[in-house]
Amino acid sequence: MSGTMEVQGALYQQAATALAGKSVAWPGKSFTPGSTAWYRVSFVTTEQPAAAEVGVNGRNRHTGMLQIDVFYPKSNQGEGPVRQEGERIAATMKRGDVFTSGGQNVRITSSAASRCFEEEEWLHVPVKIWWRADIEN
Asked: What pTM, to 2 d.p., does this model score?
């Protein structure tokens, strides 16, 4: 394996734990949002790998971002509940945390819930989790 599938697996496992019992749209799976809160998970690799170690057998450093979008229906409660949920999710994958799948470690370098956006009948808070992983060449 190239290691990138293991990186995705480690991040998805943690996202699944953070979103247990929630209505989640996972990449490549059919999903129809209901009228209550729902979530969307996206795996994004952002940069070309760089050498993490010297030599032909040195590991490559991969960096990227996992985004979890939180959607709550608009209500008279305002954006407080959806922002709190975004902060809760960010706290489950905080800077310094290490997650592993198939022997591949993934380190979280930063996580944060963004500001609230209004989209038709939904309030939307993107949660961005930046990561890095050193993968065998």
From this structure: 0.89
What are the domain boundaries of the chain? 4-135
43, 111 in Cβ contact below 8 A?
Answer: no
Q: Which residues are 28's β-sheet partners?
A: none
What are the pLDDT digits (tens) for 57-67?
A: 888 899 999 99
Dist CA 120 CA 132 (whole Å): 35
Rounded distance, CA 129 to CA 63, Å?
11
Q: Report how far residue 10's alpha carbon sits from residue 14's, in angstroms, rounded to the nearest whole number.
A: 6
Q: Does CATH place domain 4-135 in 3.30.2000.20?
A: yes
Q: Which amino acid is at 98?
A: V
User: Per the structure block, which two tokens stand in for 49?
Assistant: 């790998």
Reading the block at residue 77, the tokens are 């409660």
> How confident is the model over 30-45, as pLDDT tens digits?
999 888 889 999 877 7
d(CA 132, CA 101): 14
Strands (E), the chain: 24-25, 38-45, 50-51, 60-73, 98-101, 104-113, 117-119, 122-135
